[in-house]
């Protein structure tokens, strides 16, 4: 009879280190969608998508990528990658600006790649559906 309370006590003590994590609740993720589905970028060149200075995606015209990411600030940069298409040589690849996005758990953020006087940038886009 005495064994059950002792086993219960040991089981309870084994889960005590997890108590702070359980009290914080689920961390969750945010979804970031990057699209090149419109003709806002007039180049056939492949565009590299960098997050925290790491190449994480390559987009050709009419492509979309999505990422499940932890909440917090995220530094994103776009750059034309050298390739075989006309005008995609390394000589025209210039310094590209980066931008910081902030994701929250449960967020779905969509952006389109666009071009302006300062080069490539992300333009906020509406979701094509109602969440």
Describe this structure in words.
- This protein has a single domain, classed as Immunoglobulins (Immunoglobulin-like, Sandwich).
- It is 15% helix and 40% strand.
- The protein contains two helices and eight strands, in the order ααββββββββ.
- It has a four-stranded mixed β-sheet, with no helix packed on it. It has a four-stranded antiparallel β-sheet with strand order 3-2-5-6, with no helix packed on it.
- About 15% of the residues have low confidence.
What is the secondary structure topology, with strand pairs?
Blueprint: H1 3-15, H2 19-24, E1 30-35, E2 47-51, E3 54-59, E4 64-69, E5 72-80, E6 98-103, E7 108-116, E8 119-124
Parallel strand pairs: 1-7
Antiparallel strand pairs: 1-4, 2-3, 2-5, 5-6, 7-8
Overall domain count: 1
Number of helices: 2
Specify the CATH homologous superfamily: Immunoglobulins
Number of strands: 8
Short synopsis of the structure:
This protein is mainly beta and 131 residues long. It has two helices and eight strands; from the N terminus they run H-H-E-E-E-E-E-E-E-E.
Question: What keyword list fits this structure?
Answer:
131 residues, mainly beta, Immunoglobulin-like, four-stranded antiparallel β-sheet, 15% helix, 40% strand
């Amino acid at each position: 009879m005495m064994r059950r309370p002792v086993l219960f006590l040991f089981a309870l003590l084994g889960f005590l280190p997890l108590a702070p994590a359980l009290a914080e609740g689920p961390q969750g993720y945010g979804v970031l969608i990057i699209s090149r589905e419109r003709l806002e970028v007039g180049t056939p060149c492949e565009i590299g998508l960098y997050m925290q200075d790491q190449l994480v995606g390559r987009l050709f015209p009419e492509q979309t990528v999505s990422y499940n990411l932890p909440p917090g600030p995220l530094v994103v940069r776009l750059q034309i990658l050298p390739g075989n298409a006309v005008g995609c040589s390394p000589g025209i690849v210039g310094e590209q600006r980066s931008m910081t996005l902030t994701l929250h758990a449960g967020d779905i953020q969509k952006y389109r790649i666009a071009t302006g006087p300062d080069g490539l940038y992300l333009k906020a886009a509406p979701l094509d559906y109602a969440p």
